[in-house]
Design a protein that fits this description.
With 201 residues, this protein is of the alpha+beta class. The protein has two domains: 1-51; 58-200, Immunoglobulin-like. The chain has two helices and eleven strands; from the N terminus they run αββββββββαβββ. The strands form two sheets. Strands 4, 5, 6, 7, 9, 10 and 11 form a seven-stranded antiparallel sheet that branches. Strands 1, 2, 3 and 8 form a four-stranded antiparallel sheet that branches. A hairpin with a 4-residue loop joins strand 10 and strand 11. The radius of gyration is 34 Å and the shape is rod-shaped. The relative contact order is 0.17. InterPro entries: LEA_2, NDR1-like. The chain crosses the membrane at residues 29-52. Residues 86-179 form the Late embryogenesis abundant protein LEA-2 subgroup domain. It comes from Eucalyptus grandis (Flooded gum).
């Protein structure tokens, strides 16, 4: 009889241990599944909020050196040549393929020159460098009273404006058209032929 009771206790302890082992195993599986679900949710949120957030690339002109210039105060006029360092900064997680375009340089609202932008591509998370030869001339500014004044003070303000249209492609299948605007202002020192200040919006 005593042996029977002993065997019963052993069986009961074995069952309890088995149940405890099963409970721990179920707990591990539950924790693993919850961790996996959380990981998937975080991945999905990152994909939607970061990867799939399409932004318009920045379209700017950087500071440059004027290679050749002629500023005439007596008969107000100017000519200048330089290489315009145009930059397309793409912060998206996919390449930005843009169409051919142009950048207009103006003085007092009048066009004095133009830079041609060829069709191209800015890779993801990178800056595309485009160097364009530009010639500016006051030929279309006949009778502009401000030019004489600016040349006499030695400081002339120019603007560069343009639009770049293209598509951003993420993961080879998600595409969205984006348009980038350039609107930069530069102050040219006509006495030293140097870009004294340059800012872009």
């Amino acid at each position: 009889m005593a042996e029977s009771n002993h065997n019963g206790r052993v069986d009961e302890e074995a069952l309890l241990k088995m149940e405890e082992a099963k409970r721990k195993k179920r707990m591990k599986w539950t924790i693993g599944i919850i961790a996996f679900v959380i990981f998937q949710v975080v991945q999905a949120l990152f994909f939607v909020l970061v990867i799939m957030k399409f932004k318009s690339p920045k379209f700017r002109i950087s500071n440059f050196d004027i290679s050749n210039s002629n500023f005439n105060q007596s008969s107000p006029s100017f000519n200048m040549n330089f290489v315009a360092p145009i930059r397309v900064k793409n912060t998206n997680w996919g390449p930005f393929k843009y169409d051919a375009s142009s950048v207009d340089f103006t003085y007092g609202g009048f066009k004095v020159g133009q830079a041609t932008i060829l069709k191209g591509k800015a890779n993801f998370k990178s800056t595309k460098k485009i160097d364009v030869n530009v010639t500016l001339s006051s030929t279309n500014l006949t009778g502009n009273s401000n030019l004489r004044s600016d040349l006499s003070t030695g400081l002339m303000n120019l603007t560069s404006q343009g639009e770049l249209s293209g598509k951003v492609t993420v993961m080879f299948m998600f595409k969205k058209r984006k348009i980038s605007q350039m609107n930069c202002t530069m102050a040219i020192n006509t006495l030293t032929s140097v870009v004294q200040a340059l800012s872009c919006k």
